[in-house]
Amino acid sequence: xxxxxxxxxxxxxxSDPVYADPDVVAAAQKRYALIASTIDxxxxxxxxxxxxNSDSLAxxxxxxxxxxxxxxxxxxxxxxxxxxxxxxEINKYEPDLEQGLTETAAALTDAEAAKSAQTKANGMPDPQxxxxxxxxxxxxxxxxxxxxxQSGADANMAAAxxxxxxxxxxxxxxxxxFGDAVSARRYxxxxxxxxxxxxxxxMAKISQIFAIIGMILGALAILIPGxxxxxxxxxxxxxxxxxxxxxLYHDGKGSVVDVILGAIGLxxxxxxxxxxxxAKGMSSIAKxxxxxxxxxxxxxxxxxxLVPLKPPGSITNFSRPFGxxxxxxGGPVPNYSRPFGxxxxxxxxxxxxxxxxxxxxxxxxxxxxxxxxxxxxxxxxWVLGKLGVITPDTGFWASAWAQLKGAGEIWSTLLTDPAKFxxxxxxxITGLKGPLDLSAIMKAGGLGGISPLWFAWGGLxxxxxxxxxxxxxxxxLMGWIPAVNPPGQxxxx
Length: 493
Prior knowledge:
Distance between the termini: 31 Å
Shape: elongated
Strand content: under 5%
Largest sheet: none
Order of helices and strands: HHHHHHHHHHH
Structural class: mainly alpha
Number of helices: 11
């Protein structure tokens, strides 16, 4: 930036046309020269190590030390060339910059003088006519003098602007020469960002963005549990983050722990899908067993024992009129038109059929519904069908709505039954909700409990989600946890 805070309006400029500070340029030249000198000293010392006789060095480290010193010496030597070139080219550019500053300042001085002359010329008197309407030679000379002064001032202003443009053109030529001399295209020293470096920068940003998205989705999956739309979004975010971290690690700019934990996370998602299918198979068997027993208000004839229309063993035929050979049950029809007495005994009242037994209440097995999982979505169901995996009866979006209502039921108990809410929410965070539900279904179907390994699996999922999903990822994003790389790789900043 220029340090000349002047009024450049005479040259039709709003500010200084030269954005350069000679002191800053000189300081940069000294800095580059110092860096180049420092590199030269370092390469000289490394060369001594490379060329040292083995007699002065002992131990198994000698060969490795020489190899590393030689490689580092080569890289530093290439870098030193660019720093020397930059320092030398700045030396060449500084006189041109000084000339440009001098010329532009002179152009401004000329323009100010021309502007003052224009003002003076414009203020000169115009010729006046005599009373008879004629112009005397003296008055005509006034007109000539004013026109000449105006033309001269205008010419001087044009010359000042031309001087400014010429100075700027010369300075631009010098700047282009300087830029071409130190262009990154002229060097192969590892100091210029390659396409791979730019790709790594993009991948680092993608990894950061999708790690944040994954944390948000993970938090939502805890607050709104069981909604597979959130789960599948989290899996996609984890996959994108893993790909970006693999690219970064391959290029020596990523953390091996990021890759390992990302791969474990996706692997556990895949195992979770497999275990979900197993659990659904077990739940389906339990539901079948419950329905066979007529429980839950949906089995057999709604769980109600039916009373036969005709008692077993009866030979009474109700399909034809009563008469000989088909007497009316209970004897003759009584005559109620005269008082009861001999020969007019009333029929004994028929026994009252007992009321049907009410249907049983809800049953975890019989009421279980096979909802779609996160992997049973419109984008993957065709592939799952080809693999022989049957899509659940309830569609993906209908299942999502049912899952969302289930999450709402959990939160509805926050104020009405805090103890129940705390228990349910704790089972979600610890990953035990799924095994608890499966255990209840199996017991309700009369098939006993489940293996304790289901609870171990759920607890492992919960611990990994909280540990890797929040503690580690959050720590990496905040910079509290550094990158972990094998020897020879550069840790990501």
